[in-house]
Design brief:
CATH topology of the largest domain: NADH Oxidase
Order of helices and strands: HHEHEHEHEHHHH
Distance between the termini: 52 Å
Shape: globular
Helix content: 25-40%
Number of domains: 2
Structural class: alpha+beta
Largest sheet: 4 strands, antiparallel
CATH superfamily of the largest domain: NADH Oxidase
Radius of gyration: 21 Å
Number of strands: 4
């Protein structure tokens, strides 16, 4: 158990790889086999794995994601998008494809009025199955002494169509996970993780640990780029902690998230609700 937990904690999303390195197919096969052993709804194993190791093809995949990154800059203003040039130094890129035909094997509604109950849940089963495969692969990467990232952007229509045409899979399948693999150019500390006493609930949901709408708004509008990319696991290690967290210090560094214990009704979070430093570009031409 300690060894496995060490691998979990060693896993990183890294975007700086050593150039000029390579790895054998036996290593890549072991990594993909970790994904093959992931749990899936009804054991349908609704995933396929494309390993891109040939340099010219890897460069072509990199070009696809360079265009995807530019679309983020142009059309998703305010999101802290990352340039994808680092993909050129990967030893391989693994794409996790989702095959939606297998959703037919999940529970189907047979009574009128129950369509949403089961069809929405079937989509969740499908996506959770793919997420489990992606996570298994990332842990396999860490176990081999390599590092990776997770590019969810391959699932966008334009990007997926380009990848489908380049790699030959049916366009109705989708690259839900793209995992670049390489040797880290520099060691990286752990990224921010919520305190365990904030995320762990014993024998029922504890209202004092509920994260409020305002806290979500603050994270999205102001704190997000720092929490995404800084190397400290604990925000209380940040030298500028007081400046960055302000009145929200306890909400992000302890289990004292919601002192009055009040829960809130559902609200519309389909789009950002407030503007802050992290979203100052939103709405600009």
């Amino acid at each position: 158990m300690p060894e496995f937990q060490d691998i979990i904690r060693k896993r990183r999303s890294v975007r700086k790889f050593e150039p000029g390195r390579s790895v054998g197919r036996d290593v890549l096969e072991r990594i993909v086999d970790c994904g093959r052993w992931a749990p899936s709804g009804a054991n349908v194993q609704c995933f396929d794995f494309i390993v891109v190791e040939e340099p010219a093809l890897r460069d072509a995949v990199t070009d696809v994601f360079q265009r995807q990154a530019q679309r983020l800059v142009d059309h998703a203003k305010g999101f802290p998008a990352v340039k994808k040039t680092y993909l050129a130094n990967t030893v391989a890129i693994i794409l996790v494809l989702g095959d939606p035909r297998w959703k037919v094997c999940f529970p189907q509604p047979t009574s009128e009025g129950w369509e949403a109950e089961y069809l929405d849940n079937n989509e969740a089963i499908f996506l959770c199955s793919l997420g489990a495969a992606v996570q298994n692969i990332q842990l396999g990467v860490a176990a081999e002494g390599l590092t990776s990232a997770w590019l969810s952007g391959g699932g966008e229509d334009i990007t997926n169509n380009e990848l489908s045409e380049l790699l030959g899979y049916p366009e109705w399948m989708r690259a839900y996970g793209t995992i670049p693999i390489g040797y880290p150019a520099a060691s990286q500390n752990r990224r921010y993780r919520r305190p365990l006493d904030q995320a762990l609930h014993w024998n029922g949901f504890q209202a004092g640990q509920y994260r409020t709408h305002a806290q979500v708004d603050f994270y999205e509008s102001t704190l997000r780029p720092f929490a995404m990319y800084r190397d400290e696991e604990h925000m209380d290690d940040w030298e500028d902690r007081a400046e960055k967290l302000g009145e929200w210090d306890a909400a992000f560094t302890s289990g004292n998230v919601n002192p009055d214990g009040k829960l809130e009704p559902e609200a519309d979070f389909s789009a950002p609700r407030t503007a802050g430093k992290a979203t100052k570009r939103r709405g600009k031409d």
